[in-house]
Structures are given as structure tokens and as C-alpha cells.
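Design review, sub-item: ligand-bound model
Attendees: FS, YL, KQ
YL presented the inputs for the magnesium ion complex:
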Amino acid sequence: MSINRPRLSFAQAIEAYLHYAPRLPSVAVVDVPVKTDYVDNLLVIVDQFDLIVFDAFGVLNSGPTAIPGAVKTIAALQGMGKKIAVVTNDASSSAEAILARHRKRGFDFDNGNLISSQQFVAPLMNEHVDIAHWGAMAPADWPFHVLPDRVERLGNDRGLYDSVGGFLLIDSENWSDQQQKMLEQSLTDNPRPILVGNPDICAPMGDFLSVESGYFAHLAADACGVMPQCVGKPYHHVFEEVLRRHPGVDRARVLMVGDTVHTDVLGGLASGIKTLLVHQGGFLDGQDIEDVFSRSGLRPHFCARAIGHGLADDPNIPAEQAACWGT
Ligand SMILES: [Mg+2]
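KQ shared the predicted structure:
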């Protein structure tokens, strides 16, 4: 992702998540924990889990930068032999490119660790056997060749919006108000399927929240009445894939770690696994978290400032190594 994208304030983002919550997967009240245990960091509770599933933005990194203590925590978990999955709604580039960015930040992940919402876009397209031509919200360098059917990037030609059989909202970089207006008008005139590869409303990008394609999908749905079909958290496909890759793990010993109540925590709860919410450097940084829990009717099993809170400043760690964790 780049910083070349529209922005939201925290208040706007949380209002949007609350407003559109009825369109998200539902969780039975009985599956929401009664209370949240506040812990220092992930390592305090890690003995309870064999498989730990990480959101990326807001947990491992904020924009291009690793969150302090995160690299050390992941290395410690790998040293303990814990199973690790990274589940990202970042559909902006290939899995290889996403992995390369994580490695540059200092995380030692490979293909077996990463599950991107992007990989579920093609199967979703294949469910629409009557559509052979799609219009896409995606960057110019997006790997369209991985998709079936004819896919054209939506720009400023209204004719293209009207001629395609359906829409793929994959990544909102450089998406303009004018493009959104054409999308909504074209869909209002002729409702067609809307497939969403990144259902996030926003993502923490360092010092601001970027507007993600899920937000534009909701606006389009408001305009034309067509409910978007989404892959990625909090929807089931990614969680099923995590559990499929680790068939021997007891679901009671799986932990989802994320920074967003309506994607990571909701998706984890809906999948019947435990959840840890982190808030330093993520979506909820500096916010009244208990207020968000009470307004959403959702809460995680655990809450910590960061997965490696306190670890980056450990005096037993050489300064030059600690400095690497913040880059
Ligand atoms: Mg996140």
C-alpha cells in the first residue's frame, strides 16, 4: 500500500464500522467473552496457544514501519516452535511482494505463513459463471494475470463502468471521488455484482487512517442496493484456510491477534477461536477501548498495548538490535 489514498478520522472510521456492522458476519452473544483480560504483551499468555494468527497492519506494522517489539516477539514465538499465520486484507499486491515487505521489516515469514484475502478473489469470480468482463478498483501495477476472465482497471471512462458485468474492489490507492461517483451512478442505472478483496474500512498508515476498498463498497451498496460479496477478515474464507493448513491444532488453542474489533476480533469470535486486541500503533491507538467494546457489543478475550510491548526496551537487548525492530 502507499500513502496515496483518501483518509478518515478515527471518529469517522468507528462510526462507519458501527453503521455497517449489520452487513458483517454475526456473532452469538454467548460467543462474546463476558470480560477482557488486560495483559502486558502476547508472550504473557502464549503458553495457552499452539497456533497464533496475526493481522498485519496495526499488529506487526503501521504503514511501512514495524511496530516496536513485534519483530522480537515473532522471533521468540518461532523459537518456541509455535505455529504462525499472517492473515492480511492487504490485497494491493502479490503474496510474494507482501512477504518481501515483511522481510524488509525484519520478520522471517515464508509462503506457508501468509494468507492474503487476494487469493480468494478468483474463486469468488468463478461463482459468477455468467460474467466474463470485470471492472477493477486496483493499482495500475496490480497482478491482474492471476485472475480469471477479462479484468480492466477502472479509470475515468464512464463507458467502461457501464460495459462490464461486475466490479472487483481490490485496492483503493489513488481512487478518486469522481471514480466513486461513476461507480455508484453506473450501479444505480444497472445493478451488478460487487466483489470486495479488502473489506477493511480503514487501515493505520503511521500517522493517519487510510480509506480502504470496503468503505467504498459500502457507499456503493448504499447507492444501488446491491450487497457486496467480500473475502478477507472478518469473513470465513481466511479463517477456514488457516485451520485447513493446521488440521492437527485444537481450535481452543488458536489465537487471533488484531487491532480492529470489527475485522480481527469479530472474525476470530465468529470462527470460534480466542482473540487478542492490540491498540498501540494500530487502529485504536489512543482511543477509549472499553467504549468501543460497549458500543459494538463485541470484545476480545485479551487486550494488550502491543504484541511485544516492553520488549523493544529490554535492557538485555543490544541497542542496535532494538533499533532494527522499529524500522
Ligand atoms: Mg489491522
